[in-house]
Amino acid sequence: MEFTHEIIIPNEDLPFKMFLFEGGNGNFFREKHWHRSIEIFAVFEGSIRLFLNDKPYSLESGQFILINSNEIHSIDAVKQNRTVVLQIALKTFEEYYTGEQFIQFVHRNLACDDELMELLKRIFDTYQKKEYGYALQVKGDYYYLLHLLITQYRKNNVTADMLHKNKRLNRLSTIINYMKENYKEELTLENVAEVFGYAPAYLSRMFQKYAGINYKDYLCNIRMEYAFKELLNTDHTISETALNNGFPNSKAFSREFRKKYGMLPSEYRKTDL
């Protein structure tokens, strides 16, 4: 299967992740991938094209699309665009599951589509300005957004086939969630396999097949995501940042950082000043 898993970590000051789509300049293609979170692509200028399970969807200015947990998708942005992406952890909806760790949303061109787009715009604009009290306003609008999703866009009738397809990737999603909660600890392949009752070789094959990456590199990517945020948002030393995020020492952290970002952590800090 030619797709990879995406690691999603919420914004530092929010219960969700929100950002401007990186393909805003056009001539951009994001290969097939999946993640555990619910994702919304909202186009405010220009246009983009998405593929959900190989089915194409064209989005013009003023339109959005909901991408479900574990749904394989890719993005093709040929033209310039201004698109806001919002990603919500699946566990946010656990009180509203229609099956075991399963909830599905549909985009049915409802009357409240315009309301949802306006809500997304207000959330993003408020967050960008960061005026006094912005966090309360953003979170208030966010919870109203969740209410709209579960009352207007949640699919109530799910089939056994839908649940079966979801379980394929949900098994790995559960393991990944465990890794994200315990990434600071020593997480060998053998230890994690034992926690979930798998043989190490089976777990290794699962990562390679469904995440498109081996276990060790995936764990390193999780640690690097958190370490990068710490490096960016604190005055902790390189050694402290390394040890706080599961790296054995600063040398190992610096080596992986350079491999991912093309420079040492100390060099990045100088460019970010």
Topology:
Elements: E1 4-5, E2 17-20, E3 28-34, E4 38-52, E5 55-60, E6 63-67, E7 73-77, E8 81-88, H1 113-129, H2 134-153, H3 160-181, H4 189-196, H5 200-210, H6 215-233, H7 238-244, H8 250-261, H9 265-272
Parallel strand pairs: 1-3
Antiparallel strand pairs: 2-8, 3-7, 4-5, 4-6, 4-7, 4-8
Q: Can you describe what's shown?
A:
The structure is a single chain. This protein has helices at residues 113-129, 134-153, 160-181, 189-196, 200-210, 215-233, 238-244, 250-261, 265-272; strands at residues 4-5, 17-20, 28-34, 38-52, 55-60, 63-67, 73-77, 81-88. Strands 1, 2, 3, 4, 5, 6, 7 and 8 form an eight-stranded mixed sheet that branches. With 273 residues, it is α+β, with helices and mostly antiparallel strands. It is built from nine helices and eight strands. A hairpin with a 2-residue loop joins β4 and β5. The protein folds into two domains: 4-153, Jelly Rolls, CATH 2.60.120; 182-272, Orthogonal Bundle (Arc Repressor Mutant, subunit A), CATH 1.10.10. The model has no long low-confidence stretch (mean pLDDT 90). α4 crosses α5 (200-210) and α7 crosses α8 (250-261). The termini are far apart.
